[in-house]
Design brief:
4 domains; alpha/beta; single chain; about 35% helix; globular; three-stranded mixed β-sheet; Rossmann fold
């Protein structure tokens, strides 16, 4: 009963302290795809991902009800760092959903326009507002509506102390007439958050602040992500000297609070703990490392297999360049790609469970085989062109001068004249299950079988390769079928032998695949990339570094006259694939189990 009454009181006092409109809320999940498109189309950095912002303490004065409720301590504001556009997880400030959505659009435009980071906060946002209104006049009406709505939620200046009143009057003047305020008057406390502007003091990630970026603990970066998709600020600290997590004594004040150090073996324990809820109220989560990191445990598991059980390496490897996006430099001979061949792949027939689907695909693709085409009006050919002969005789009999034309017809076979190379991602993530019986690698294997069956029916030249990586010195490039090899039981045995590998250094694999494809004498050259996630590796290839290197490799392939196209089963592929392949350069398969059937049909559409 006490808990029930307490819950009712908490809801009542919280609703009374902070007037929000959850029924009219617009979430980032709802607008996320639109946000990315708008940000990039309005001139924002196309390499930035769009993610939810961490709530930060604003330090402004709170009302009595807010202090009683313990609310309004933090606010989710918009900011950018080197890799991410951070937007509020949800906006429910206004009683109308269209206004909440308009605020998202305005913040995206403000972030895309950019401003001089060296300017003071109030000048920076005023100038950004002026730039947006000048570049996009259509947003003027939205700004006027949002400005009036925001001003109605802000505290009245006459109810504030002298310093805070001057601050509030300056902010109101800056909102009403952008560019009219030069500085923010000093006060004891910061002003109330201005939700129409960008963050006054954006949290800096460790990478942006110049601190060491250890790839082994990349996941413990500047933000930690919870199950509710909300991100929390974090910092790395040195491991405390104390070897005991709890210091208990008879004194009540010695009982630890959540603000003190508790040694939790979180790097090596994956179990969810219900005791983690109090951490959601902390401003910053401190993360320390001891000698038992997850990376050190994984290092043994991800070590290379012994030469006797591993695939057969061919040659000493191939040195390839790699793009460093921060230096804007193509680093020559930076990676080593190792071609490999399955050591113990035995010739196999097509798996029985794919026979019916393969038969149907072969019948469908048989219509794409080279067909006989008759060319009329030829001066030499296997048959007379009756139409041309009749026309010639009519012209002669009518007294007209007969035009010089051929009286024969000849037939030729119209060749599709194309070559396709399919590059399959065989990284460790393909070992995950998509159903009770199937893993991603099983779906990829079936896809390669059916794709080969379909293309064999058309006579198109095609090749199959797979790749994974373990840092830049060991990029494993698995040869499944070369262009000159015929698809047969031996190739099926190689496909059946594929297994999950390591990581996804995609740029180097695309560069080598492009070199193989460009050698083919064909008019159309299609480079199909089959993957289940973003480019990544154990070293600095994680994050934007890998994305930008992959993007440059794709651009190089296009300059060579190839057509790269990505097929992914990553549900979040739309967040980063437009930056890599362009809007029309990829497709996301929402149901991975449908990939074996969908890929051949997609190929038919791409090459018709």
């Amino acid at each position: 009963m006490e808990e029930y009454v307490g819950a009712l009181w908490h809801k009542f006092i919280t609703d009374a302290a902070d007037k929000r409109y959850p029924k009219e809320a617009v979430t980032l999940e709802q607008i996320g795809k639109t946000a990315g498109i708008l940000f990039r189309s309005w001139g924002g950095d196309s390499g930035l991902a769009v993610k939810s912002a961490a709530a930060t303490a604003h330090g402004a004065k709170r009302s009595l009800l807010q202090r009683i409720a313990g609310s309004n301590l933090k606010a989710e504001l918009t900011w950018l760092d080197g890799e991410t556009l951070h937007l509020p997880t949800a906006i429910d400030l206004f009683p109308r959903m269209d206004l909440n959505r308009d605020l998202y659009i305005w913040l995206i435009a403000l972030a895309a326009t950019g401003s001089d980071a060296a300017l003071p906060w109030i000048q920076r946002n005023q100038r950004a507002t002026q730039d947006v209104l000048a570049r996009f006049p259509g947003l003027s009406c939205r700004y006027q509506r949002l400005k009036d709505a925001v001003l109605s939620t802000r505290p009245l200046p006459e109810r504030l102390s002298s310093g805070e009143r001057e601050q509030e009057e300056a902010i109101r003047a800056a909102l009403l007439n952008p560019g009219s305020v030069e500085r923010l008057p000093p006060a004891v406390r910061p002003p109330q958050p201005v939700y129409l502007w960008l963050h006054p003091d954006p949290p800096a990630s460790e990478t942006a602040s110049g601190k060491r970026d250890d790839p082994q603990d990349h996941e413990a970066g500047a933000c930690l992500k919870k199950e509710n998709d909300r991100r929390y600020q974090a910092e790395r600290v040195d491991m405390p000297d104390s070897k005991d997590g709890f210091m208990m004594s008879f004194r009540a004040e010695s009982i630890l609070s959540w603000a003190e150090y508790i040694k939790v073996n979180r790097p090596t324990e994956e179990d969810d703990s219900p005791d983690g809820r109090p951490a959601e109220d902390m401003d910053r989560l401190s993360v320390a490392q001891d000698g038992k990191t997850a990376a050190s445990r994984l290092k043994f598991d991800l070590d290379l297999p012994s030469p006797a059980s591993d695939d057969l390496p061919l040659g000493e490897g191939i040195l390839l360049p790699e793009w460093h996006y921060k230096k804007q430099l193509l680093q020559p001979a930076h990676c080593r790609l190792q071609p490999m061949l399955a050591r113990s792949a035995e010739p196999l027939p097509l798996p029985a469970h794919l026979s019916a689907t393969a038969r149907r695909l072969r019948n469908q693709f048989a219509a794409l085989t080279p067909s006989k085409v008759w060319f009329k009006g030829q001066f030499d050919g296997s048959e007379l062109d009756l139409d041309a002969c009749v026309q010639f005789s009519a012209d002669r009999m009518g007294g007209f001068q007969a035009r010089e034309r051929g009286l024969y017809k000849a037939h030729q076979y119209r060749d599709r004249d194309l070559a396709c190379l399919l590059l399959a991602d065989l990284s460790l993530s393909t070992d995950s299950y998509i159903s009770d019986r199937e893993r991603v690698i099983d779906v990829i294997r079936d896809t390669l079988f059916l794709f080969s069956e379909a293309l064999s029916a058309t006579g198109d030249r095609f090749a199959l390769y797979g790749f994974s990586s373990l840092k830049r010195g060991n990029i494993r490039f698995h040869i499944l079928k070369e262009f000159e090899r015929k698809y047969n039981d031996e190739i099926r045995g190689r496909i059946a032998a594929i297994k999950p590998g390591f990581y996804t250094r995609m740029g180097a694999a695309i560069r080598h695949a492009s070199q193989l494809l460009i050698r083919q004498a064909a008019t159309q050259k299609l480079l199909l990339i089959l993957t289940d996630g973003k480019p990544n590796d154990l070293d600095q290839y994680e994050g934007r570094y890998g994305v930008e290197d992959t993007r440059v490799a794709i651009h190089e392939a296009r300059q060579m006259g190839l057509r790269p196209f990505c097929v992914t089963i990553d549900e979040k592929g739309s967040d980063y694939l437009p930056h890599l392949f362009g809007i029309n350069g990829y497709v996301v398969i929402r149901k991975p189990a449908e990939l074996p059937r969908e890929l051949p049909l997609l190929y038919a559409q791409l090459t018709r």
